[in-house]
Amino acid sequence: MAAVLEYDRYPGPGPLAVLLHGWACAGEDLRPLALELAGRYDVLVPGLPGHPRTGATLGRAYGVEAMARCVLDLVAAVDRGPALLVGHSLGGAIALAAARLEPELVTRVVTVETSWAWVAAPGGLVDPAEVERRITSVNNKREALGLATVAGQLDPAAMAESLSSVLAWSRDPDRGSPLHRLGVFGDPGWAGVQAAGTQGTAAEGVRVVQLPGCGHWPHVERPAEVAQLVAAAETA
């Protein structure tokens, strides 16, 4: 059995749900949503490679597909049947990649603020100074929401590699999945969707919901509402 991601569990009576955090973030970000979903699902919140909890212990598994395989290994190891995958930002890309790689291990995919118009911004995303600037920006925004800092807990090489991989993923015309049922956006992601059209959701037939007034972390700002949308997507 492959090495498995470190994770927090919010046990519940229903099927398995795996929540995937975003780039330069942490599983803690998803705790409000996990608590809302635990009444309906058995919820796992792993730390992605290069991020808090799992760190660099799984080696250089920092690309979108490599991290998707780590998530699938976790689903297989838990052995609770196929999982609902809910991914925030980078986590959404990972969830979609996992659904493409092994659809039999996935029931549905819900993405939250997974829109990649911002990835193509000039400035050299793999330049160390630019990566550090983006890490600082994300960390400051997380702290403004009351989330604990992740400064010093991120692997810089992992951050650069995952950004580079997401850029390649965003250009892949086959990056979507028929299991993708819902894309939830706050104001930042919604602006990207409007600018890029369906590029932000990556599949036809995906229900797109905007939560006006939310930033990049709708699952922190309005977790009960996001949980209701997730549950509805699972039965759609």
Automatic annotation (TrEMBL):
Enumerate the Gene3D superfamilies for this protein: alpha/beta hydrolase (3.40.50.1820)
A Gene Ontology molecular function term for this protein is: hydrolase activity
Q: Name one GO cellular component term.
A: membrane
Keyword list, A-Z: Hydrolase
What Pfam families has UniProt attached to this entry? Answer: Abhydrolase_6 (PF12697)
Where does this protein have coiled-coil stretches?
A: none
Keyword Transmembrane helix in annotation: no
Residue stretches making up the AB hydrolase-1 domain:
18-228
InterPro entries xrefs: AB_hydrolase_1 (IPR000073), AB_hydrolase_fold (IPR029058), AB_hydrolase_sf (IPR050266)
Plastid found in the keyword field? no
Listed name of the protein = Alpha/beta hydrolase
Species this protein is from: Micromonospora profundi
